[in-house]
Design brief:
mainly alpha; 0% strand
Length: 64
């Protein structure tokens, strides 16, 4: 509700900027998709490396 109210205020005070933001938002989202995919991939790689490094400790202690 607050977001809608803020958009309406922006539309009244500065409608060209509001329309430009509405038109460019999908383009910005499309450009950010590869970065999100890269971030998800790197997160998975680091979690795998962490699991491999901590594997001996988990085996010796017997606790997760």
């Amino acid at each position: 509700m607050v977001a809608l109210l803020l958009w309406l205020i922006l539309l009244v005070l500065c409608w060209p900027l509001a329309l430009l933001a509405l038109l460019l938002w999908p383009l910005a989202w499309l450009l950010s998709l590869p970065l999100r995919i890269l971030g998800i991939t790197l997160h998975g790689v680091f979690e795998l490396l962490r699991a491999l490094v901590l594997l001996p400790a988990r085996i010796l202690h017997g606790k997760p």
